[in-house]
Amino acid sequence: MLQLFEVTKDSPWFPQVKMLYESAFPANERIPMKQLMDNKIQRDFFAFVDDINGTPTFCGFSNSITRGTITNIVYFAVEPELRSRGYGSQILKAIHELHPDTRLVVDIEVEEDSKDAEELERRNRRRDFYLRNGFEAAEFNYNWQGEHYRLLTAGGTVTEQEFRDFWKEILKNIPGAKYP
C-alpha cells in the first residue's frame, strides 16, 4: 500500500526526491530545491513509498500548493522504472483525498510545441495520463519561464482569472517572483 511521507532536508527519502526532481524536470522548469523546502510558500511536499517485495521503495513525489478551492500540483513525478504500474494514479488520488473540496490543477507543456518526435511522444503520454485520471483541458494556455503550458483541471473548471489570482496571492510577499 502506498504511503506518503513529508519531504524535509532530513527526510530519509530526500536524496531520491532530489534526484528524481532534477532528472524529471528540465532546468528551465525547476525552481531551486532550497525554495521548494523553505516555508515562504506553504506547500504539501510528499514522497510516496510502497512495500515492494518486502522492501520500502521510493515511488515518486508530489509538490502542491492549496489556496481556497484550488490545489495546484506544481511538481509530480514517478520513478521511471515504476511508471505504468498505477503509482501515478495512486498519487493523484492521494492528493485529491488530502484536498477533497478543491479543484486540482496541473500544467503540461503544449504538445504542438515539441521539438522532436520523442519529446512529442512524452508530452502526449503525459497528457493522456492526466485525461485518463479525470483531468480536462482548461480554456486557456499560458507562458512561464520560456515554456508554453496547457492547464488541465479535475473536479471543476478553473478560469484564467482564477488561476492568475491564485498565483498572485501565493507570490505576493516574495520580491521579484513572477507568476504565470
Describe this structure in words.
The structure is a single chain. This protein has a seven-stranded mixed β-sheet with strand order 1-2-3-4-5-7-6, sandwiched between helices. The mean pLDDT is 93. The chain is 31% helix and 33% strand. 24% of the residues are buried. It has helices spanning 14-24, 33-37, 87-98, 117-132, 160-171; strands spanning 3-6, 44-52, 55-67, 70-78, 103-109, 136-144, 147-154. It is built from five helices and seven strands, in the order βααβββαβαββα. Helix 3 links the parallel strand 4 and strand 5.
Topology (SSEs and partners):
Elements: E1 3-6, H1 14-24, H2 33-37, E2 44-52, E3 55-67, E4 70-78, H3 87-98, E5 103-109, H4 117-132, E6 136-144, E7 147-154, H5 160-171
Parallel strand pairs: 4-5
Antiparallel strand pairs: 1-2, 2-3, 3-4, 5-7, 6-7
